[in-house]
Amino acid sequence: MKRKVVLDVDTGTDDAIAVMMAGLAREIDLIGCTTVWGNHGTDETTENTLRVLDLLGRDDVPVRRGLDRPFAPIPFIFEDHVDSAREAIHPHEFPIPRTSERQAEPGAVEWLVETLRAATEPITLVPVAPLTNIAAAITLDPSIVDAVDEIVIMGGAHALGNVTPSAEANIWHDPVAADVVFRAGFERLVLVPLDATHRANVSLGQIARLRELGPVGAAAAELIAQRIRGYNETQPMDEVDTAPIHDALCIAYLLDPEVIDIAPYHVAVDTVSPLTFGKTVVDVAGRSGHKPNAYVALDADAQRFGSLLHGVIAASGPAR
Ligand code: RIB
Ligand code: CA
């Protein structure tokens, strides 16, 4: 039985790989993509998502545009924040041809609420972007969490940060939305933070093999090459000429849960402090007195991830 999945994306370079894997994997019924601001505004994240699905020959997957600003206003102006990495890692030159496909109506938040209310089978939510759409849908109808068997979130960090020393981009962009999601009472919330994604980096050698897999493999290789250049320039990994493909690790987990190591911890989000705004506080030592509300991945199997990535694209055969 295929697993029904909704991907919430701010398509940039790693979201695009996640859309490829979800759109191609035989185990997944990708019932829709919802787009949100983050790496880019929703004009661009929506267009980029449509382009990827068109390349896959998956125009049957509806794309719905979501929200373009945080769920709650940021309580102060960042004086010294510089997010130069985003432009380098998610360049506007998106290496997949334009498409005439357009987003479907209604918009993302209304569609999420309607779809989850009407669900007759469990739906897996995979937000790999700021959690603005998900928080808005929960606020409209808190009961929608009951239709979700598992929410798998790319976001947060325990011992790392990428937009500040202590915060990861998806959470930092909308910490109040993340707080709403962590408190919403999902039956099973899996958090895939930087601590895991940075342990599943992809290398130039691996993308050389992807490049041999037809138009989809070539596009994946170029997207990852953009990421490797961007990481080398702005936040080089321990192994140079490699880059994390954060969002794709969430889809890999759906295909093979052993690709990440998860454990139950309480996770809270800082929504107020200028110093640690957007930090996910993962209570690994059980000091908060709160019950765990998430399964948090603090490690990943890079070789397993690389094989899953290559295998899904290779099995897809030549795209149309
Ligand atoms: O911090 C990494 C996350 O931020 C990824 O989802 C990337 O696409 C950006 O949204
Ligand atoms: Ca993303």
Structure report:
With 320 residues, this protein is an alpha/beta fold. The mean pLDDT is 95. Strand 4 (123-127), helix 5 and strand 5 form a beta-alpha-beta unit. It is built from 12 helices and 12 strands. The radius of gyration is 18 Å and the shape is globular. Helix content is 38%, strand content 18%. It has a single domain (3-316), classed as Ribonucleoside hydrolase-like (Inosine-uridine Nucleoside N-ribohydrolase, Chain A, Alpha-Beta Complex), CATH 3.90.245. The protein binds alpha-D-ribofuranose and calcium ion. Residues 10, 12, 14-15, 38-39, 128-129, 154, 162, 168-170, 246-247 line the site of alpha-D-ribofuranose.
Provide tags for this entry.
globular; 8-stranded mixed beta sheet; 38% helix; 320 residues; two-stranded antiparallel ribbon; Inosine-uridine Nucleoside N-ribohydrolase, Chain A; binds alpha-D-ribofuranose; binds calcium ion; alpha/beta; single chain
Outline:
With 320 residues, this protein is of the alpha/beta class. Helix content is 38%, strand content 18%. It has one domain: Ribonucleoside hydrolase-like (Inosine-uridine Nucleoside N-ribohydrolase, Chain A, Alpha-Beta Complex).
